[in-house]
Amino acid sequence: MKNSGFVTGAVPPIDPGGRIHLLFSVGDCADARAAVTAWAAQALALGRVATTVPNARADDVSRFVRAARAGARVLIAGPRREAMAATAAARSAGVLPCEMTTYVTAADGVALFCPHCATTRSVDAAPGAVVACGSCGLDLEIRPHLSGHHGTYLGAVA
């Protein structure tokens, strides 16, 4: 698939090479639901199978991915925090980066990993900001490094 990372802006197209498309709307977001509807229409127009999962949670993504056949394409749409968690669940369930696209509809905060105390928490900030770790209290700069496997941004001691 061409779009293997996090995408913002216009809704990206589906991968026409995929025969099965798993389409997840996360975060109870109207823009995410609209993206999934557009993806489903594209898949059906190409004669492909499209499974849509509205208001999906990370465990829903994991369950559907584990049950999917090889070569399925996974498309996730929703606010950044929820989309990151769903992407991490898909990756943990075996989806390759080239088999998925994550469309971020809103930048509402991030999951942040503290390398000092090895905790992850949700923060209402963006990469480049400095926040205090809720566990150990260290000031952390949110680095632009995003772990698709964990669905978190890395914090560096500021």
Give a description of the structure.
The chain has a five-stranded parallel sheet, with helices on both faces. A five-stranded mixed sheet has the order 7-6-10-9-8. 39% of the residues are buried. The model has no long low-confidence stretch (mean pLDDT 90). Strand 4, helix 3 and strand 5 form a beta-alpha-beta unit. The protein starts with 5 loop residues before the first strand and ends with a strand. The protein has 158 residues and is α/β, with parallel strands linked by helices. The protein is built from three helices and ten strands; from the N terminus they run E-E-H-E-H-E-H-E-E-E-E-E-E. It has helices at residues 30-45, 58-67, 80-92; strands spanning 6-7, 20-26, 49-56, 73-78, 100-104, 110-114, 119-123, 130-132, 139-147, 152-157. It is elongated.
What's the number of extended β-strand segments?
A: 10
Order of helices and strands: EEHEHEHEEEEEE
Distance between the termini: 37 Å
Average residue-wise pLDDT: 90
Q: Helix amount, in percent?
A: 10-25%
Keywords:
25% helix, alpha/beta, 5-stranded parallel beta sheet
Summarize the structure.
The protein is of the alpha/beta class. It has three helices and ten strands, in the order ββαβαβαββββββ.
List the helices and strands and how they pair.
Layout: E1 6-7, E2 20-26, H1 30-45, E3 49-56, H2 58-67, E4 73-78, H3 80-92, E5 100-104, E6 110-114, E7 119-123, E8 130-132, E9 139-147, E10 152-157
Parallel strand pairs: 1-5, 2-3, 2-4, 4-5, 6-10
Antiparallel strand pairs: 6-7, 8-9, 9-10
Helix pairs in contact: 2-3
